[in-house]
Amino acid sequence: MDALRRLYRWLVRRVPPRAAWALWRAAMLAAQRRRGRVAGPTIALAQLAWGASESELATLVERLADGAEGDPGHLLVISDCDAVHVAAGRGVRLEHVPPREEWRRRFPAGDYDAFVERRLRSILASYRIASLVAPDGVPERVLRAVSEAGVPVGASQ
C-alpha cells in the first residue's frame, strides 16, 4: 500500500464523520480525474423548472420525454418541486432543490441563497451537461451558480 493510501486511511479514522465524507468525495474525484472521468453520465439536455407546480412539472417532463431521441435518461430536470415520481415515471432524471419555505423550516438561521448555489454546483458537477435551458423568471442566484459551473445556458423552448 502506498503512502497516500495509508495517510488517507489514517485521516478518515481520525476526523469527524462530515469531514471523512468530504475527504472520501475528494479522493473519489481525484481518482476519476486520474482515470479521465471527471463527471458522471452525459446529459444531452437539462431543463430548469424553478417554481413549477406538480402539474407544470409533469407537462414539462412529458414534453421532454416525448421529444427525446433515444434514452430519456439523458435528460435532466432541476427543480424545486418535489414531485420526483413524475420524472421517474417517464425515465427522466430529476434533481430536487428544496424550496425556500421548506428549507427555512429545517434551517431557520441558514443562508438559503448560499445553499442553493452550493446545491446547484454539486448537481452540475455530477453530470456532463451538453446544454441547459433556463426559462424566464429563474432567480439570479440560480443563473449565477449555473454560469459559474461553465454549463452553456439557452433560452426556454
Q: In terms of quaternary structure, what is this?
A: single chain
> Which architecture of the largest domain does the CATH hierarchy give at level 2?
3-Layer(aba) Sandwich
The outline comes out as globular
The named CATH superfamily of the largest domain = Glycogen Phosphorylase B
Structural class: alpha/beta
Main-sheet strand order equals 4-3-2-6-7
Helix content: 40-55%
Straight-line distance between termini? 53 Å
Low-confidence stretches: none
Strand portion: 15-25%
Query: What's the total number of strands?
Result: 7
pLDDT averaged residue by residue = 82
How many strands, what sense, and barrel or not for the largest sheet? Answer: 5 strands, parallel
> What fold name goes in the CATH topology slot of the largest domain?
Rossmann fold
The Rg value, from CA coordinates, equals 18 Å
CATH class of the largest domain: Alpha Beta
Number of domains: 2
Count of helices?
7
Write out key terms for the chains shown.
single chain; about 160 residues; alpha/beta; Rossmann fold; 2 domains; five-stranded parallel beta sheet; two-stranded parallel ribbon; 7 helices; 7 strands; about 50% helix; about 15% strand
Please characterize this protein's 3D structure.
- This protein is of the alpha/beta class and 157 residues long.
- It has 2 domains: 3-35, no CATH class; 42-155, 3-Layer(aba) Sandwich (Rossmann fold), CATH 3.40.50.
- It contains 7 helices and 7 strands.
- The strands form 2 sheets. It has a 5-stranded parallel beta sheet with strand order 4-3-2-6-7, with helices on both faces. The protein has a two-stranded parallel sheet with strand order 1-5.
- α3 (54-67) links the parallel β2 and β3.
- α1 (3-14) runs antiparallel to α2 (17-35).
- The radius of gyration is 18 Å and the shape is globular.
- It starts with a helix and ends with a strand.
- The mean pLDDT is 82.
